[in-house]
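Minimal example, chain plus pyridoxal-5'-phosphate.
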Amino acid sequence: MASSASENRLLLSKIATNEKHGENSPYFDGWNKYNQNPFHLTENPEGVIQMGLAENQLSFDLVEERIRKNPKASICTAEGIEKFRNVANFQDYHGLPEFRQAIATFMSKARGGRVTFDPHRVVMSGGATGANELVMFCLADRGDAFLIPSPYYPAFYRDLGWRTGVQIVPVDCDSSNNFKITKEALEAAYEKAQNNNINVKGLIITNPSNPLGTTLDKDTLESLVTFINQKNIHLVCDEIYAATVFSSPKFTCITEVIQNMNCNPNLIHIVYSLAKDMGFPGLRVGIVYSYNDDVVNIGRKMSSSGLVSSQTQHMLASMLSDEDFVEKFLTTSAKRLAKRHGVFTDGLEEVGINCLKSNAGLFCWMDLRRLLKDQTFDGEMVLWRVIVNEVKLNVSPGSSFKCVEPGWFRVCFANMDDDTVEVALKRIRAFVGQGKKAQEQVQVKSPKKRWQSNLRLSFSSSSRRFEQEGVSVMSPRMMSPHSPMPHSPLLRATT
Ligand SMILES: Cc1ncc(COP(=O)(O)O)c(C=O)c1O
């Protein structure tokens, strides 16, 4: 007897079938746009360029060179196969001792060598995604909340809350002070949660920030530590972008701050991963590093559901303990990121587009407020739809990061080659240039390039034209891919 899809869904758990995965967002919709028509320099030059994926692809050549020169580091080569049995059989959730040592040393180097980490506190998980969920599992009960300064990583809803039932309470930050996290904003969010009978268990920060590409200064970090100490709540620091800092000011990590402060270390937890700093999101190396012994012990037991494969641990233990390689990689990667960031932001400036001044990350926080027809989130969606559908660039709108001001967009620049960057810049220049021209000559219309005529409207005061061309305004919810897709972003769960 055939049953309907909705009947079948009723047989599943409420937690799995609720909407708390947070994927009903233009952030994920943009990935689908790319998957449906991916740009290729020669095979699909009119396709969508993926600028919504925070991948670091600029220094793979160095990694490949090291792998080639060290065949013994892999258990899948003639030179390394003698270790195959031991490694393939290894499943201790404490991890290979040499891996824990190597990652602890690497974490120190990624923070400029100014702090050290104890390998015994390293707990493994499936990427920072798994690490963030694991920390929530240890610290909060269903219905409890964590404060998160906005704008923040869109997948936090899924990672932190979907399975654990933990709520997110945004701490509103805005461009008036370059999105600084102030004591007033923290207190306001905390108080609001309390007034709504929400039990706040902690604060999560991403430092360097995704999507801002900025680092928190020492004073701000100290004030955050003071805040969580006074409230006796936890501080989780997602430092996944630690080694992407490419220009001054230098990165100040939480470890550096707490070692000179009088605070309760049991409240401090770091989340880390090799997805961004090394460019290995596919290897699923996530780390929880907690100063709380109970969190280390409980987290380790829980981590058996998301261990890093022993083959990966084995390979990375060798690579990350190679001091010369790590030194060269970190320096070169930072230089290349700085260069790419410069090329990209200079290219934008040529057409009068500014980005928030940044010194880290794999993206820019682009200010397109002046291109909005209306200074509203609907206005932001109108512009986003033109950019993704007509200009064919998948950038991510600020609303998906819970930015409180419409008109900001995150644009990733390190997941492509130089030629693709040039094509992207060319499209942006043409888009903005054409918009300016159209603003001056409202009647001019080019029949060949449909997006150029649409662009005119993003500057105009009327939305009628969008409706005529079928480019209607849709809210993020309406645009979601709720049905199973062959290219679900879940299958490419990176960002
Ligand atoms: C702030 C932040 N945390 C966590 C993650 C997830 O990282 P991973 O691929 O290691 O699971 C990302 C990925 O973009 C991120 O930006």
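The mean pLDDT is 89. The chain has two domains: 11-59+332-492, 90-323.
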